Amino acid sequence: MKKLLLVSLLAMSATSFAAVVGSNEYVEMPVKVRGEVVETTDELVITPLKNAGVDGTSMEFDFGKLTQGGTQLLEGTFEVKRANGTRVVADNVTIGMLQADNTAIADSIQSVITSGAGVEAAGVTVDYRVSTNAHSDGNSYKGVLAVNATVADDAEFGNFLDTTRKVAVRVAP
Fold it and tell me: Closest by alpha carbon to 123, among 163, 153, 162?
């Protein structure tokens, strides 16, 4: 009975981490392919490369479990290019975090998480900073977004979420 319980617990723990379990000699994993065909124009396209959201159109940072008084830094990368592949000139690019007025772009911005709207853990401060070492490879512009979560010593326990921030890129004519 104990062996059966142990085996079932091991099987549940393997599947809870989204692992695919096979036999001693064979295992297979599904592969999903997705994309979007876009019109060939000179419109800007921004694509998350590291810490991409599930839909591929956003960046997501999962801090997991943090303790009171703790802090953690995560980084994500993204690429900006034109749909038709023409050059995005780095000297004419302004990149940063979109401010609350939805017009100004700044290198950094801060969110202070408060209770309400499905958020349980008040007392978390999230700092967003677009790194200054972003560079152009000729036809695209690559950027780095550093996100730092700091938990106050007296923060409430529970989940926190911030969906109010956006990376913005403006190319001057």
Answer: 153
